[in-house]
């Protein structure tokens, strides 16, 4: 069965682009427009990995990861931060929140897929 | 702009206005108020000189005392309130339109990728059926080959039969020879019997018994001659029948040989065509696969390029939010003037610092400090940070 990946980004075009790359590799994709929207879609179903933006309205990526990791079903779900933000301090915040990888936009599909394949839950 | 004496027009206008006001006051009020009016005029000029002392604008000791400054600040605030929301709406509208367009473009790409995947899948299946077609081809080739072989062995046994028929012909020829031998023996026996009869007649009554034997022998020889003739006739009939059969067999064998050859040629031609077709199919599906891989690479590149919208959108949002702050900054400036009575210069650093705080990308910082940058390159695998 195809593995499910959640893509959280406020830019519709970027969600599309990430979605194309992931669907092309055989993953199923759930989309979240921001942290709040994404959390509302975490209803206990199996999510094998999350690809998350940092700067978003309503709830930013770092806050989302912290809250997502509090949910019992998703404690061990790996999160990749995919962002234009390249500051070391932000990376540290992401690491502290529980993210497993940091990818700077713009990304090459194969690079993202490599990171996804490395981290995705079995 | 400077006039000949080097005094700015900004200084001239308020001073001139104040001077005119003072003069007017003096002319109009001299008769009624005398020195008091003159003092007021001097104060007015002094105030104008103070106002224009270096920047050309300064508050008098108490706020709201100078209607011109009040008006100016109010109009500036009005300007900000009126213009900036329009600018911001345009930026936001463009940003939204771009987002929708790029999103649509991305979904089109997505559908292209899907279709490509399907095509690849179908071509992969065709390729599989191509390989099974090659198998079918090989199988048919073997089967047709065995048909040809069995046909050839049937032909060979027919040829053997033809040889046997020809042997029969030889036997009948021998039989005919033997029958002729019987006929010649009968003729000689007849002559012998005739001689014996003559000798018996010469012997007279003593030869009467011998004459009987001679007659019997002669009758036997005549019967053998008849039998021999009959055998010859029959053998002739058999021989001509065998000859006809052998000729017919030979003709049909030749015809079969020919049709056998043409069948073999046709089978070969059909198999060749079939092979060409399967080869072409396998080649074209291989080509399709290669092309698809190329196109997928192109789509991957396009996916990198399409991410520009996200960056541009962020930059536009940051600038828009900063622009939206300007009316408030103007309002605060006016409030500060009204509170302190000091008209400070507008500080650009306030907004610039706020703008800088919103930056997420290294690109924005670079552009802020005056650099012109090409779009950043896509992340390489070694730039991914794992925690």
TrEMBL record, chain A:
Modified-residue entries (4-aspartylphosphate), positions: 53
Coiled-coil regions listed: none
Residue ranges occupied by any Response regulatory domain in the UniProt entry: 4-120
Keyword terms, alphabetized: Phosphoprotein
Entries under SMART domains matching the protein: REC (SM00448)
Gene3D superfamilies xrefs: 3.40.50.2300
PANTHER family: CHEMOTAXIS TWO-COMPONENT RESPONSE REGULATOR (PTHR44591:SF25), STRESS RESPONSE REGULATOR PROTEIN 1 (PTHR44591)
Protein name per the record: Response regulator
From TrEMBL, chain B:
Superkingdom as given in the UniProt entry: Bacteria
Membrane topology: Multi-pass membrane protein
PROSITE patterns: CHEMOTAXIS_TRANSDUC_2 (PS50111)
SMART domains: MA
Sequence intervals crossing the membrane: 12-29
Residue ranges that the Swiss-Prot or TrEMBL entry lists as coiled coil: none
Any Pfam family the entry gives: MCPsignal
Subcellular localization, as worded in the UniProt entry: Membrane
Keywords: Membrane, Transducer, Transmembrane, Transmembrane helix
Occurrences of domain Methyl-accepting transducer (ranges): 90-270
KW Cell division (keyword) present: no
PANTHER family: METHYL-ACCEPTING CHEMOTAXIS PROTEIN CTPL (PTHR32089:SF119), METHYL-ACCEPTING CHEMOTAXIS PROTEIN MCPB (PTHR32089)
Protein name, UniProt field: Chemotaxis protein
Biological source species: Duganella dendranthematis
């Amino acid at each position: 069965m195809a593995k499910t990946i959640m893509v959280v980004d406020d830019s519709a075009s970027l969600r599309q682009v990430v979605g194309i790359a992931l669907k092309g590799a055989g993953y199923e994709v759930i989309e979240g427009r921001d942290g709040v929207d994404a959390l509302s879609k975490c209803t206990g179903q199996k999510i094998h990995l999350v690809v998350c933006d940092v700067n978003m309205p309503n709830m930013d990526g770092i806050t989302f990861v912290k809250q997502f990791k509090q949910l019992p079903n998703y404690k061990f779900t790996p999160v990749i931060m995919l962002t234009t933000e390249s500051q070391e301090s932000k990376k540290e915040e992401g690491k502290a929140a529980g993210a497993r990888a940091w990818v700077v936009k713009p990304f090459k599909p194969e690079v993202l897929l490599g990171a996804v394949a490395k981290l995705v839950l079995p | 702009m400077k006039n000949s004496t080097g005094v700015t027009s900004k200084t001239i206008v308020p001073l001139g206005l104040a001077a005119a006001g003072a003069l007017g006051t003096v002319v109009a009020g001299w008769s009624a108020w005398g020195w008091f009016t003159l003092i007021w005029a001097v104060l007015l000029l002094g105030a104008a000189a103070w106002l224009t002392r270096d920047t050309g604008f300064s508050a008098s000791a108490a706020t709201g005392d100078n209607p011109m400054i009040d008006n100016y600040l109010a109009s500036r605030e009005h300007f900000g309130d009126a213009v900036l929301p329009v600018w911001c709406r345009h930026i936001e509208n463009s940003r939204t339109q771009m987002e929708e367009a790029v999103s649509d473009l991305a979904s089109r790409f997505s559908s292209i990728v899907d279709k490509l995947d399907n095509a690849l899948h179908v071509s992969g299946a065709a390729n599989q059926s191509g390989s099974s077609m090659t198998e079918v081809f090989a199988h048919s080739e073997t089967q047709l080959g065995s048909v040809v072989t069995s046909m050839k062995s049937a032909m060979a046994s027919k040829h053997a039969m033809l040889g046997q028929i020809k042997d029969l012909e030889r036997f009948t020829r021998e039989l005919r020879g033997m029958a002729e031998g019987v006929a010649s023996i009968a003729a000689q026996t007849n002559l012998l019997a005739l001689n014996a009869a003559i000798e018996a007649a010469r012997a007279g009554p003593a030869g009467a018994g011998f004459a009987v034997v001679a007659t019997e022998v002669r009758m036997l020889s005549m019967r053998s001659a008849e039998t021999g003739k009959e055998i010859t006739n029959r053998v002739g009939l058999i021989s001509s029948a065998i000859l006809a059969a052998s000729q017919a067999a030979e003709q049909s064998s030749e015809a079969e040989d020919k049709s056998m050859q043409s069948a073999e040629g046709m089978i070969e031609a059909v198999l060749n065509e079939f092979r060409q077709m399967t080869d072409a199919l396998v080649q074209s599906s291989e080509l399709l696969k290669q092309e698809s891989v190329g196109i997928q690479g192109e789509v991957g590149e396009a996916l990198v390029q399409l991410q520009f919208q996200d960056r541009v959108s962020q930059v536009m949002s940051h600038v828009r939010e900063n622009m939206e702050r300007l009316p408030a900054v103007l309002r605060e400036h006016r409030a500060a003037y009204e509170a302190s009575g000091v008209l400070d210069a507008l500080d650009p650093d306030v907004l610039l610092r706020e703008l800088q705080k919103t930056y997420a990308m290294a690109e924005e910082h670079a552009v802020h400090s005056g650099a012109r940058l090409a779009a950043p390159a896509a992340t390489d695998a070694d730039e991914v940070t794992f925690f």
